[in-house]
Amino acid sequence: MPELMSVEEVVQRVLGQIVRLDAENVVAVDALGRVLAEDVVADADIPPFANSSMDGYALRAADTTGASAEHPVRLNVVADIPAGHVSERAIGAGEAARIMTGAPLPPGADAVVQVELTDAEWTRDDTADLAGSVGIVSAADAGDNVRDAGEDLRQGQAVLRAGTVLRPQDLGVLVSLGRTQVSVVRQPRVAIIATGDELVEAGEPLGPGQIRNSNSAVIAGLVSQNGGIPIRLPIAKDNLDAVRERFAEALAAQPDLIVSTAGVSVGAHDLVRAVIEELGELALWRVNLRPGKPLAYGRVGSVPFFGLPGNPVSTMITFDLFVRPAILKQGGRPLAAPVTTAVVTEDMTFDGRETYMRVTLRQDGDRLVAETTGTQSSGALLSMVLADGLLIVPAGTTHVAAGTELGVRLLRA
Ligand code: AMP
Ligand code: MG
Predict the structure, then answer these.
(1) What pTM value is reported for the model?
(2) Ligand nearest 210 Cα, by number?
(3) Which pLDDT score is estimated for 412?
């Protein structure tokens, strides 16, 4: 019997053999959630010109000294500058230009006074003649309500770092800089193969002794949640030719990773192992983990391969622990899993393996309480449906007393 490997040791071995994928160019506005593969540096000032941050009057601040409601300063209005229009008319002493938010500051002006601090009464009619003069009722300082060129982004400034998972505001920055394309890490393509004579797809009639292939749907969802592209292949029946054919199909789809479920234990009909040994190489790792049978890891051709146990809960948990970090690393994403701590409410006994218990979580005062979802059978997918998280019982633990605080891996929505 080979030694039992710890969960952490298996994760490290896997990660040691996985490399980040190469980059590809995609349309910038479609890159939400993708991982940036380049540093983005501003190639120009944003905004490109000094402009008004208010609707009001551009003027020389020095002209407004001492202005008040009782003693307004009167200025001649010599121009009207809507957003998107440039006025070349220089503002001289005793002059002002009506200006809208975002419009370029005219030459000569050094401040903007908002309309509310003037005696102007604007109508919604843009074509209305400009009043000949305006009374300013509050003194302004140079720079008031003026956004300098480059106030948002300075030319040469590093704005987004490679490795950033692009958010809506990041796309906004790319567009502001005029970018239409952006370099991002390629999404891992993950081929998914379910094996077993007992399996049929939803929509097919269920014959005697048959169950539906739920694993492929679950794995496809997990792949997507972690930034990968799932490629679902048809079910492989439990015979050498069928399994061989599926793995050939998987390779033809040019995946970055292949995941199969079932067919890797010591059962008489477990054929995945035999086929992988023909096509590449395979190690069976006995992991000190519950739930989870032996984990097969290897490669098919040059593509990394995971053979997960068939039981639906074991499939999910071994995916979460071992496949997820591989997909995240290929995709250039941070590996940290969302974790918290919670207190258990009852005494429990364990067999000493690192155990992932399906639990619900509820807030109780200032602490989080974890309670079992009921059956912990590795075939009971409902236990995952009910669970908010996986309570982590460390290896070597045989007894946990009520009130003990343990780590919990949170399951994502
Ligand atoms: P195995 O790993 O082949 O021994 O399968 C373990 C258990 O998981 C058996 O009860 C199988 O019927 C079940 N199982 C295997 N593959 C799937 C699948 N794709 N979807 C749902 N259950 C499965
Ligand atoms: Mg089987």
Answers:
(1) 0.91
(2) 1
(3) 86
